[in-house]
Amino acid sequence: MSNSVIEESNFTPFLKKLTIYCSGGPFLDGYILVIIGAALVQLGPHLHLDAYWSGMIGASSLAGLFLGGLVFGYLTDIIGRKTMYTLDLLALVIGSILQMFISTPMELVILRFIIGMAVGADYPIATSLLAEFAPQKYRGLMLGGLIAMWYVGATAADIVGYVLVDIPNGWRWMLGSAAIPAILLIIGRWGTPESPRWLLSKNRVEEARAVMKKVYGPEADIDDCEEEIKQTRFGKIFEAGYFRRTIFVGAFWMCQIVPLFAIYTFGPVILEMCGLGHGKEAMLGDIILSALFLIGIVPALMFVNSVGRRRLIIWSFVFMTLGMLILGVFPDASAWVIIAGFAIYALASGGPNILEWIYPNELFPTDIRATAVGMGTAISRIGACIGTYLLPNWLQTYGLGTTMLIMTGITFVGLIACIALAEETNGLTLAQAGSVSKSVNQ
Length: 442
Known about the structure:
Blueprint: H1 5-8, H2 13-22, H3 24-47, H4 51-79, H5 81-99, H6 105-133, H7 136-144, H8 146-164, H9 170-176, H10 179-189, H11 196-201, H12 205-216, H13 242-265, H14 267-273, H15 280-303, H16 309-329, H17 335-348, H18 350-363, H19 369-421, H20 430-434
Helix pairs in contact: 2-6, 3-4, 3-6, 3-8, 3-9, 4-6, 4-19, 5-6, 5-10, 6-18, 6-19, 7-18, 8-9, 8-15, 13-18, 13-19, 14-15, 15-17, 15-18, 16-17, 16-18, 16-19, 18-19
Protein name: Inner membrane metabolite transport protein YgcS
InterPro entries: MFS_dom, MFS_sugar_transport-like, MFS_trans_sf, Myo-inositol_Transporter, Sugar_transporter_CS
Membrane topology: Multi-pass membrane protein
């Protein structure tokens, strides 16, 4: 164990506040993705949407997430975490408000693409900042706990949609409502210091020392950062050692996200096809499904240190594949069988969910950490975008059972990727975990 003040710090009020405000991005992502599903109940007839436009609207924010993560992750490693920490949310606020006044499907597609870029940018910005302040003992909990807010946001969107779905033009208020938490988040994040690890990696020694003493006390100094001066190079994530990790993060994240985003975006439609209610009843079922995903986070956070990252992600994918297989093989079974399939998949998803931000932040060093998180986000959203766009057509052409079997195959590929590529980073300092030579496989 390192004697670093950062690695051995207690869970101070500053770290608690930072964790809360860093979780705002995942909250907004969950909210924005799910609220469109509820809004489409009214928007479908209002804009005369067919399967093509429904898929385009569902996929547009995911396409924005791809570009936002890819571009702004790299920029964050170059110009810093603090600079981007609040500015990215301004675009989200403006885009959310403008959604209330759209009159064509294309306008909505464009605005949701812009909003997606803002959320995609926030992932590498906020998670890198949090990882670089987090003590080793609490790093898994702090980073993994962020995803819980994704499901809180998703559940909140379900509730808002349920309340507004019967109100004339309720879709306008659904889509514009995301601006409210975004504005509160901008206010809360104001004044957050820059990462001392990033400052030191850019040879801004005195600034790094000042932040260390402000956050960790007068006894702290730059030696506690365990950082070397390095130049950010995008291509480093494709070099020996790190390329394997880039493939792993992108593969497991994509294979977990494709079914999840598809289910969330079109949750009420899928539940109706399963015979689990219609209209508001199906939306109520979607709220319960969101709660199951959220509940699955709890045991994952409990075991991420004791069981380890590698075992947790492998066994999670085993049970996720089983749950999706039940839905594919028995699409016309009794309600209890369908519920069991959804419940197994949702609860088991907790492992990969919390590791989406733990793994890329631990497996890569400071000079390319945000770049790696952004790349993982981008890769995952390529598949999520395609899957969300194709899902309405798959359901219409192949039916529910075959569509769920396709999702089963995608989840199984994720399992194979984890068995072949997952590393164990539990118990390592952030510097050790990000070093190719010091990583530990188990």
